[in-house]
């Protein structure tokens, strides 16, 4: 599309591509003490030798398997027996010892409240807390930060006091977004890390396995309890060719999301390989790994590369790079030649086009060349209302320098952003470096507003007064675009794209504009962008910025520290343990009433909304008031409407409260991929808090299914998905066969549900459970934490 009829095209000199690859890596950062951040390679290699002894001789391992299996507590127990000759992936439960835990401020509250119930003096592995999700974007970095610190003071005080008490590194508000900080400080090739956030896989950009979990899983690692994971299948993605022009690593994952859909990665690790991998920057790989969460993948990883080595040096972690080089020489940080994948997808980077994904789901992928047609066919808005770049997905130095190259071109053509153009730096390191190198000035000179180093609009912390309740379209370089996620408006359509495409489109304000082919009209004639260019690493090194945000490394626990929770607080509440749902910890579940049947997509955002509710993350009674408030009731097609036994209609949480008051156990029937999205354990805690005992689904998202088990709710899968509509609200449902499974006298995975209709008719529905032996104990004790606490007490009294 040409926006002007003039044939004169203004082209601007743009910066030559300056790749850092092959040059000495600049670092202005002092070399860090890497003792606590270097993976324990000798131990991992030794475990891997034991693994090879257990597996059939000559077994070839993928990189993902090497990292996972080298973290096994007991290879014989997890892989031996039938596992030695049988199938492991998708079948066996692995008992793992993660190396590290990272927690963001919203999810850390409940993780720490749970950790406190175990009464241990310190954490078993290094851990960090990152204050990023509670900073609301409104006017700009400084004022937003000051206001948000004031508004969330009691939460930050609580987190800081817990960090001090247990020896956790505490990253203050303003320090940056958890995943960017982890990549810059803690990620290392071959490491196994848990993070209480679904985009934890971002750290996979450094050739490790970083897995998003709920707080209860984090507590496993923090208490040195075996962390259990069903051995994932491995999807291999072979990259060939080279990215061209406007195509970026973001476009690769947007394209792959379109191929795999939001369910395609469930129960799988995505492992990239092939000649196209080493050419990608480390931060570009992190973007790809970050959005692996959007296809439901357990995590994503890449073989150790020269770009990873350079990134480690540039961020002051030369000793980690040296240790990784040694481990790589022993074959640890790449797949064995001939290793097999469960599925292989090949992508030729040379043919990859920029993509825009959405609206309302990250897997609706449209190539840029067809986007205008897509919008017009669907009658979607074609006027852009806001452009947002940054977030943990895309705020690397490379992203910012390439975006600045577009802004420079626009500025020279006399253009300014036509719409609000918001930039979220991922960390203080990035912000300070971008400022030092003049990129921030460039962006501000074309109308950008630089926000605080925090999640901001990406997590709904965006005070947006315009377009309330209106259909409108925004472009973001974020990773997720479910309804109402960014500004609370169900009608805002968020299309995900690379920061380069978002920025270029901000200057046209028109979503029909294709910056790779079209021109923008200017007083000097039509102006056409040249493809962006930039630096992978800052040419004169990173600038650390304000060091007061950062913690001192490996702080010593201070057991005398008082945990800061006021009994009057509406934000924080000491957690009371749940009781068991089983009589004497045995038998079948008591008969339950079906409270409702949830229809269609039900993400953790639907089950426990974010946005304004984030402030109650540490207060279970208060946050539970949002339970399933955007879910659709299949029986009346209404949002947030449930019918109580007496026929009265109310909101879903209010109806749940009535059941709780009557002490009446209840269950839910839900649809496919229930609980996809953020690793939000509140989505399991809240139904449990109101008395939910069982959820039967067409299918579950992995993390959420585990979270339900952790909180003592039994998740069951319909064997025949069409049985979904055989259970309706007010039916009385009992389990059959569960008692034998709980007692260990049956190895069957079948649980039959006896469903008694209000009419007296009885139907039977076959379901399947996925409980491991430990998970059976969690159910028996009422929650995983009850079980961990009981075991710890048993050990200390022995
Ligand atoms: Fe924050 Fe958004 Fe990244 Fe989540 S996806 S960590 S909300 S920036």
Automatic annotation (TrEMBL):
Cofactor note: Binds 1 [4Fe-4S] cluster per subunit.
GO terms for biological process, alphabetical: tricarboxylic acid cycle
PROSITE patterns: ACONITASE_2
EC annotation from Swiss-Prot or TrEMBL: 4.2.1.-
UniProt-annotated stretches for the region Disordered: 516-561
UniProt entry keywords in alphabetical sequence: Iron, Iron-sulfur, Lyase, Metal-binding, Mitochondrion, Transit peptide
Cross-referenced PANTHER family: ACONITATE HYDRATASE B, HOMOCITRATE DEHYDRATASE, MITOCHONDRIAL
Protein name stated in the entry: Aconitate hydratase, mitochondrial
């Amino acid at each position: 599309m040409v926006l002007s009829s003039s044939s004169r095209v203004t082209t601007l000199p743009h910066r030559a591509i300056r790749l850092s690859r092959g040059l000495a890596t600049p670092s202005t950062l002092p070399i860090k003490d890497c003792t606590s951040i270097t993976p324990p390679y000798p131990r991992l290699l030794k475990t891997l030798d034991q693994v090879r002894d257990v597996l059939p001789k000559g077994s070839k391992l993928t990189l993902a398997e090497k990292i996972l299996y080298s973290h096994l507590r007991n290879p014989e127990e997890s892989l031996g027996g039938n596992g030695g000759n049988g199938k492991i992936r998708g079948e066996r439960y692995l008992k793992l010892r993660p190396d590290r835990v990272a927690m963001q401020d919203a999810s850390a509250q409940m993780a720490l409240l749970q950790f406190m119930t175990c009464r241990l003096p310190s954490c078993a592995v290094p851990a960090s807390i990152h204050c990023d999700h509670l900073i609301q974007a409104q006017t700009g970095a400084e004022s937003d930060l000051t206001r948000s610190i004031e508004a969330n003071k009691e939460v930050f005080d609580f987190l800081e006091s817990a960090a001090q008490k247990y020896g956790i590194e505490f990253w203050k508000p303003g320090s940056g977004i958890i995943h960017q900080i982890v990549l810059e400080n803690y990620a290392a090739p071959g490491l196994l890390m848990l993070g209480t956030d679904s985009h934890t896989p971002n750290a996979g950009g450094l050739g490790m396995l970083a897995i998003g979990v709920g707080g209860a899983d984090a507590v496993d690692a923090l208490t040195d309890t075996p962390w259990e994971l069903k051995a994932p299948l491995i999807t291999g993605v072979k990259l060939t060719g080279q990215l061209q022009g406007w195509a970026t690593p973001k476009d690769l994952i947007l394209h792959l999301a379109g191929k795999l859909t939001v369910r395609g990665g469930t129960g799988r690790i995505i492992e990239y390989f092939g000649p196209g991998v080493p050419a990608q920057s480390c931060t570009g790989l992190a973007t790809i790994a970050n959005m692996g969460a959007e296809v439901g993948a357990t995590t994503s990883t890449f073989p150790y590369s020269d770009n990873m080595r350079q990134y480690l040096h540039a961020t002051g972690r030369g000793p980690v790079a040296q240790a990784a080089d040694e481990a790589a020489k022993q074959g640890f940080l790449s797949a064995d030649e001939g290793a097999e994948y469960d599925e292989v997808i090949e992508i030729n980077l040379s043919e990859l086009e920029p993509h825009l994904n959405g609206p309302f789901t990250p897997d609706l992928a449209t190539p840029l060349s067809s986007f205008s047609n897509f919008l017009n066919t669907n009658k979607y808005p074609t006027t852009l209302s806001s452009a947002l770049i940054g977030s943990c997905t895309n705020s690397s130095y490379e992203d910012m320098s390439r975006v600045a190259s577009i802004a420079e071109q626009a500025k020279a053509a006399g253009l300014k952003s036509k719409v609000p153009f918001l930039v979220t730096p991922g960390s203080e390191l990035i912000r300070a470096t971008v400022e030092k190198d003049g990129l921030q000035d460039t962006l501000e000179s074309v109308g950008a507003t630089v926000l605080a180093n925090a999640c901001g609009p990406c997590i709904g912390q965006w005070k947006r007064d315009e377009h309330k309740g209106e259909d409108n379209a925004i472009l973001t370089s974020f990773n997720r675009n479910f309804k109402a996620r960014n500004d609370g408006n169900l009608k805002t359509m968020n299309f995900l794209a690379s920061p380069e495409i978002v920025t270029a489109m901000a200057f046209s304000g028109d979503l029909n504009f294709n910056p790779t082919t079209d021109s923008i009209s200017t007083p000097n004639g039509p102006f056409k962008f040249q493809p962006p260019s930039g630096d992978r690493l800052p040419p004169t090194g990173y600038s650390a910025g304000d060091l007061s945000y950062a913690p001192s490394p490996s702080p010593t626990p201070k057991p005398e520290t008082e945990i800061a929770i006021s009994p009057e607080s509406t934000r924080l509440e000491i957690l009371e343990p749940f009781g068991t749902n089983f009589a004497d910890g045995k038998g079948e579940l008591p008969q339950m009433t079906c409270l409702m049947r949830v229809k269609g997509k039900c993400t953790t955002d639907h089950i426990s909304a974010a946005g304004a509710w984030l402030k109650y993350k540490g207060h279970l009674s208060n946050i539970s008031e949002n339970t399933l408030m955007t879910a659709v009731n299949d029986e009346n097609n209404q949002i947030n409407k449930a019918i109580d036994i007496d026929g009265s209609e109310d909101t879903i949480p209010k109806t749940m409260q009535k059941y709780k008051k009557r002490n009446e156990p209840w269950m839910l029937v839900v649809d496919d991929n229930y609980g996809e999205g953020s690793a939000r354990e509140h989505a399991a805690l809240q139904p449990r808090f109101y008395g939910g005992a069982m959820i039967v689904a067409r299918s579950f998202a992995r993390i959420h299914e585990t979270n339900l088990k952790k909180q003592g709710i039994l998740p069951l899968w319909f064997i025949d998905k069409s049985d979904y509509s055989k259970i309706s609200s007010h039916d009385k449902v009992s389990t059959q066969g569960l008692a034998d499974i709980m007692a260990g006298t049956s190895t069957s995975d079948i649980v039959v549900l006896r469903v008694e209709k209000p009419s007296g008719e009885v139907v039977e529905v076959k379901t399947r459970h996925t409980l491991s032996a430990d998970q059976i104990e969690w159910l028996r004790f009422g929650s995983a934490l009850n079980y961990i606490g009981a075991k710890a007490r048993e050990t200390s009294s022995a």
